[in-house]
Amino acid sequence: QMIRSKAEYIEGLMVGQYFNSVTRDIYGDTVTVVPVKYSMSRLKFTNNVLDCRSRNGVDGGHYSPVCKGCSFSKWGSGKEGRGTDCKEYINFLVIEKDSQQPMVISFKSSSLAAGKTWSTLIIGRKIALSTGQKVHAPAFMTQYTLRTVEKTSGQGVYYIPVVTPSGAADAGLVAEGANLHKSFKGELEGDAAETE
């Protein structure tokens, strides 16, 4: 998205910013969203071509009946013996607060921990019913702010997302989230909102 000669180029996009690869909107270093659903997946590419896919991160593709037993999901199977050859993703169907557009945010590699933290935050939210019983709150009742933080390693500079709850979603976003949750039946894959 930052290379001028590529069709995916987005003018004005800077490293570490959130953007929408479909609408080409640039959100900057932070974006506030309301999650609707999330799921895990795994993808393996060979020569930039999709070679194997697990839509739930558990059931294997054509290399193994389950991802856990596949040699490509093991640490050290990646390029030059680093990481894994088959990449794990956690994907969130969300509604962007300002535009109220639905999109998918996918976390992988160095951002995977942030995605897992976010799913834990969602699971841990509870609400009290009129009976006093506490139940898990629907994900779309809380808005979250994602911001990027610059990190440096021996391989250079990279950016990781940090996810924090930022209050209750307003009634309009809750209604949008409930409708989208009810109508969405597909698998969550894609990269509509990314960090460059």
Principal-axis shape equals globular
- Number of helical runs? 2
Low-confidence stretches: 189-196
Mean pLDDT figure: 86
Q: Mind summarizing the main beta sheet? A: 6 strands, antiparallel
Strand percentage lies at: 35-45%
Order of helices and strands: EEEEEEHEEEEHE
What class would the helix/strand composition place it in? mainly beta
How many beta strands in the DSSP annotation?
11
Rg of Cα set: 18 Å
Residues in helices, as a percent range? 10-25%
- First-last Cα distance: 7 Å
Structure commentary:
The structure is a single chain. The chain contains two helices and eleven strands; from the N terminus they run ββββββαββββαβ. It is mainly β. β3 (30-46) and β4 form a beta hairpin. Residues 189-196 have low confidence and may be disordered.
Supply the key terms.
mainly beta; 13% helix; 196 residues; globular
Give the gist of this structure.
13% of the residues lie in helices and 41% in strands.
Q: Can you lay out the helices and strands and say which pair or pack?
A:
Elements: E1 18-20, E2 26-28, E3 30-46, E4 49-54, E5 86-96, E6 102-108, H1 112-124, E7 126-128, E8 134-136, E9 142-153, E10 156-168, H2 171-183, E11 193-195
Antiparallel strand pairs: 1-2, 1-11, 3-4, 3-5, 3-9, 5-6, 7-8, 9-10
